[in-house]
Amino acid sequence: MAAEQDEILREVTGSEYKYGFVTDIEIETIPKGLNEDIIRMISAKKEEPEFMLEFRLKAFRHWQKMSMPNWAHLRIPPIDYQDIIYYAAPRKKPRYNSLDEVDPELLETFNKLGIPLEEQAHLAGVAVDAVMDSISVKTTFKETLAEKGIIFCSMSEAIREHPDLVKKYLGSVVPYTDNYFAALNSAVFSDGSFCYIPKGVRCPMELSTYFRINAANTGQFERTLIIADDDSYVSYLEGCTAPMRDENQLHAAVVELIALNNAEIKYSTVQNWYPGDKNGKGGIYNFVTKRGICKGNNSKISWTQVETGSAITWKYPSCILRGDNSVGEFYSVALTNNYQQADTGTKMIHIGKNTRSRIVSKGISAGKSNNSYRGLVKILKTAENARNFSQCDSLLIGNNCGAHTFPYLEVENPSAIVEHEATTSKIGEDQIFYCNQRGISTEDAVALIINGYAKEVLNQLPMEFAVEAQKLLQISLEGSVG
Amino acid sequence: MEDNLIPTYTGVYLNNKALFTEDVPQLLEPIRQQALEDFSTLGIPTNKLERYRYIDLLPSFNKKYDFYLKPNLLNLKIEDIFQCDVPQLDMKEVLTINGFYYQNNIFKGWQPDGTYVGSLRQAMHEAPEIVAKYLNKTYTANDGLLSLNSLLFLDGLFIYVPKNKSLAFPLQLINLLIANNDLFATQRNLIVLEENAAATLVVCDHALSSVQFLSNTSTEIFAEQNASLKLTMLQNVNNKATAITTTNIHQASNSQVHSVVLTLHGGMVRNNFNIKLTGEGADNQTHGLYLPDASQHIDNSVFIEHIAPHCTSNQLFKGILDDTSYAAFTGRIYVDREAQKTSAYQKCSNLLLSPQAKVNARPQLEIYADDVKCTHGATAGQVNDEAMFYLRSRGISAQEAQFLLTFAFAYEVTQNIPLGDLRFRMEELINKRLRKELGRCHNCMITLG
After folding, report:
1. Burial (Cβ within 10 Å: 0-12, 13-18, ≥19) of residue B449
2. B361–A409 CB contact, under 8 Å
3. Chain-chain contact of A404 with B361 (C-beta, under 8 angstroms)
4. Distance CA B66, CA A171 (A)
5. CA-wise closest residue to A263 among A319, A206, A200
């Protein structure tokens, strides 16, 4: 029994990445390195207005004064920022009117990923804004959305066509001074998604984007901005996969959410970037700043993430609860395997009265990986009757991995109630025995237990995503699970 | 600012070098040398350091202090001005004054039963092998304050209990601070319990003058196999003082160390506990209760390392915060890969009684073994409304109900105080403190006026 379990564990923890392949598309890049000229070049290539160039340059000058943060429980090899190509775009750059015009190889890539662009759009009613190496390739359902007054487009387009909105909100939640990677992103961001939901509109479909890093040696620096005006609702899905590469690739994205009075934003992520091979070689560095502000009263922001990829994850989707009665939620499943490292969690900053937040974090570590939860709950003086509940559970598979919890509770108002709970455990031998006894094989039992463990979070995902996320958890622990 | 501080403090050592190593250079010189090097790089911890994020010690260190380097500067009989009046306590008491073991204490070294209770300085001559074996062996070069302590300590309490013996009486150590000018005091205590040895120790801190004190005390505790130590610390100094304590504990297999630390008074208090469970089956309980009021700042930091399998540890820290006080708790449980079957618990609960009070809690887990049970929890809030209602509906006044519930909240910690009389006395103190009637023991109160 023990030997069999060991065997299964070895298989489980020894599986390799399934999505590794490189798409051969001609790619237009600019020279390696980072300096003001490069930034001017990026800005010029994207035909940006003057204010964007200034924004980028200010960020770049600030970034030069900063140093890499080192407080996370991560071992990050030194990164040579001059050895990165900061801009890559598919060379053929026509505006597609139909799918037929899109490079067939590109479509093939999406198919391999299991994203039937057209099909999914039709059948599931999902509008897909597919970003491949920084440039928006195809935007579907744009017309349908436009009827409702919803703006859903690539960031570059938004900068050109809705400069007022961009100017007003870009950098308002994550200023370029915020942190090292946010500053870097502000200086060099290539593209991303922009979404504006007007007053009183309930977005009729789930908005979705697939990011994919492809060209060798190019970092991906997207920037997403979602604004939900008064009384509106939007659910946004983000999913990522990257092909296999030996060198480590850098991904430093910034996501900003703004919810005005009574608005609600639901942001779901499934992240499955290349985690490096069994020996910890290669993989994506995922250094992401995600933050939402509940600016208006009674607004709500909900983050749900399933993190199974990336060699190093440094990510803290946060909520600033400024409006009275606003609500912040964070649901996370983070799975690390082999030599992956994850330091992820959230920040809930309570400013308004009667604000509430809820954190549910489930960490799963296997192989030789390290998985940390790091979260801050801050109740400011003004946050009368604020309420927070946090739950962080860790599951260890095998005894070569690590699971860590670093919560920070800062309370400045006596009417606040803040609670934090955490447990660490392994898959119980008795649980497996129970399943075995009923004729369920050990590998199925492990899958069953893992999925049950993550259920609380997976339940928060929109249906299409939940199915994929469940599969992903199984694939990541591949060998026997599922 | 910080850079200028390093020479101020290393200067104290360098200008009085002979004094710091004179008697036993072969023992002390390497310790001082190491400490000097480490302190020169580490300096006084700033709140930029993750471990000291919630406390800013620089203003306290950035003052001019007298350094108390020789024991007999005070020409007075301490018995005349101070007597601990915890009644009916069947304890033997020993005093230290500004970090030095008091010369008129009833215990002066080796006892007939083979135990040693006395001055650490003296023990370096009288029990050189034992001191050499243990002194500074819990030292790690990661905390500037500990390095500073290793650099500047001259004396303190030394307890040695040999194999199969136990200290026949609960020992009360009273650390007194007394001076006419602002004073910096350093003290090092060393407690060694050999196999199957047992001891009960109560440590009280008092300030007898109302000048500014900065005390940097470090206690090293070694519990060998099956040894058992019950430690109670009562911190009750004046609100101008800054007290830093570092308690380093090494526990061998099946040893038990149970500590309770009560912080009733103290302007700024930082308690560091570094506990290492190196033998199978070791058990550590560390409990704390802090009741800051006025503008006090209390910061507890507990780091427990589970190195060996089958160990248990339990941390429970509770705070009741009033006025503009500020409290922080950092607990970290580290479980090594080898430490399977670990059970480790950690809890920090806080009651905020005033809108200006602030609390920060960081209960952390760092786990590398898979077959462990570790939980932690932290809460901050106020007295339960329903409980209040229950009491009010039975005719108890709002104020009284608040007292009752607050006291009950504290009871979870105080019930762990090992000696009945002492527990009773502490509870009385807490009760008085909560009612804002009296903050300290009678005699200290009288001395301070």
Report:
1. exposed
2. yes
3. no
4. 52
5. A200
Q: What is the mean pLDDT of chain A?
A: 79
**B376 — contact with chain A (CB < 8 Å)?**
yes
What element of type H or E holds B251? strand B242-251
Residue in chain A nearest B377 by alpha carbon: A421
Nearest Cβ partner for A424 among B358, B361, B365:
B365
Q: Is residue B98 part of a domain?
A: yes
> How many domains does the structure of chain B reveal?
1
Which chain A residues touch B371 with a CB distance below 8 Å? 399, 426
CB contact under 8 A, A417 and B375: no
User: Which tokens belong to B180?
Assistant: 């006419």
Distance CA B274, CA B106 (A): 31
Is the Cβ of B358 closer than 8 Å to some Cβ of chain A? yes
Q: Which amino acid is at B279?
A: G
Quick one: pLDDT at residue A353?
93
**Residue in this structure with the two tokens 């469970």, named with its chain if needed:** B277
Which pLDDT score, from 0 to 100, does residue A121 have?
A: 41
Task: Tell me, yes or no, whether B39 lies in a domain.
Answer: no
- The whole domain housing B237 covers 65-434
> Hey, is the C-beta of B435 within 8 angstroms of any chain A C-beta?
no
pLDDT tens digits along B125-165: 999 999 999 999 999 988 999 999 999 999 999 999 999 99
Query: Please, which residues have CB within 8 angstroms of residue A48's CB and are 6 or more apart in sequence?
Result: A156, A159, A160
Structural domain includes residue B46: no
Measured distance CA(B94)–CA(B103) in Å, rounded: 10
Min Cα separation B218/chain A (Å): 27
Task: Work out the percent of chain B whose per-residue pLDDT is above 90.
Answer: 52
SS3 A407: strand
Tens-digit pLDDT profile for residues A71-108: 888 888 888 888 877 776 654 443 444 555 555 655 55
Nearest to A419 by CA among B57, B376, B147: B376
Angstrom distance (rounded) from CA A144 to CA B226? 75
Residue pair A337/A476 in contact by the 8 Å Cβ criterion? yes
Tokens standing for residue B292: 């800051």
Q: Decide: B153 and B184 in contact? Cβ < 8 Å.
A: no
Please tell me which of the candidates A405, A411, A414 has its beta carbon nearest to residue B354: A414
CA separation, residue B237 to residues B105, B290, B427 (Å):
22, 13, 18
**Cβ neighbours of A463 (radius 10 Å):** 9
B6: Cα separation from own chain's centroid:
24
Length of chain A: 482
Q: How many CB atoms lie within 10 A of CB A381?
A: 13
Mutation to test the B interface, candidates A404, A419, A423, most B Cβ within 10 Å: A404
The residues with which A409 forms a beta bridge, in sequence order, are: A377, B361
β-pair partners for B366: A404, B334
Residue B3 CB: number of other CB atoms within 10 A?
Answer: 7
Amino acid letter, A1? M
Q: Model confidence over A310-351: pLDDT tens digits?
A: 889 999 999 999 999 999 999 999 988 888 899 999 999 999
Measure in Å the smallest separation between the Cα of B70 and chain A Cα atoms.
Answer: 42
Beta pairing class for A347-350 and B100-101: unpaired
Please indicate if any CB of chain A lies within 8 Å of the CB of B385. Answer: no
Which alpha helices (H) appear in A366-441, and where do they start and end? 429-437
Supply the ipTM of this predicted assembly.
0.80
Whether B426 is in a domain gets the answer: yes
Whether B354 and A412 lie within 8 Å, measured CB to CB: no
Considering only CB atoms, A407 lies closest to which of B352, B362, B372, namely B362
Q: Which H or E run contains B185?
A: strand B183-193
Task: Tell me how crowded residue B371 is: count the other CB atoms within 10 A of its CB.
Answer: 15
Tell me the chain B residues in contact with residue A414 when contact means C-beta distances shorter than 8 Å: 352-355, 357, 382
- Whole-model pTM? 0.82
